[in-house]
Amino acid sequence: MVASANGVVAWRRRDAKDDPVLAILGGDRRHPARVADKLLMRYLRCFGDVSVGAETVRTQPELVLTPQQPSDEPLPELFAFRERAALPRQPRNIVYSVYGRLPLEHRIFTTPGIHPIVVTTPLGGPEIRRRAGAAIPPALLVDDLLDPAGLRRAHARLFDDFGVRYLDCEGGETVLNALRGAGLLDEVFLTITPFVIDESAHDGVLKIFDFEREGATLIAEGRAEADASWRFRRWRFNDR
Fold it and tell me: Yes or no: is domain 2-236 CATH 3.40.430.10?
């Protein structure tokens, strides 16, 4: 996750140009600390499979959960890491969706070599099949995701039925809160940028956990050599 200096992670967008993530990261895509944040994200995608919430899919049409998105420079050592760990070349792309309102033309569902799984509810399953029409829908895992016990069952099935062992969840905050409430969130890698967001200028502002109040332990912290105002923290909830 990425948070502003005052802990903001998202808000309700006014339009397509009102992108919270880009505002929190700052405007310069080539800034060394921002490049470091992206490299960390790509590295964390190497260890297993990757998940994301439906809203992130709807608002980021270019997103593919892989160590190398189409616009990324080649880093063959990332895929070599997966090969040495006896993992498939690409992580499974797992999408959480309560109601199934997913754009199935999205890159996650159309990129060759990417195997999507939608974790959804009894309401969402029929909607996804309807949207697929005559095409084969993505693999579905259906349970009551709004109940913490149902979310735990869904992850047990990811483990038993799909072989998921390590899951890198890239949010958003709603998904992370649900995982935390179900006792499934083990660690959070948080990038804190130096930018302060004016909370009064946005509706529906979401902020990152108060980690210490939640009982998490800070087990690592780093800073970008080129700009020490960016902080990279690793918090642990479940010590197991």
Answer: yes
166, 48 Cβ separation under 8 angstroms: yes
Burial of 22 (0-12, 13-18, 19+ CB in 10 A): exposed
Q: What is the pLDDT of residues 63-97, one digit of tens each?
A: 999 999 988 999 999 999 999 999 999 999 999 99
Q: Which run of H or E residues covers position 230?
A: strand 227-236
- 117-124: long-range contacts (C-beta < 8 A, 24 or more apart)? 117/92, 117/93, 117/141, 117/158, 117/162, 118/94, 119/51, 119/94, 119/95, 119/143, 119/145, 119/154, 119/158, 120/96, 120/145, 121/145, 121/146, 123/98, 123/99, 124/97, 124/98, 124/99, 124/100
Is-above-0.90 flag for pTM? yes
Structure tokens at 117: 């799984």
Among 194, 237, 133, residue whose Cα is nearest residue 6 = 194
Domain coordinates in residue numbering, the chain: 2-236
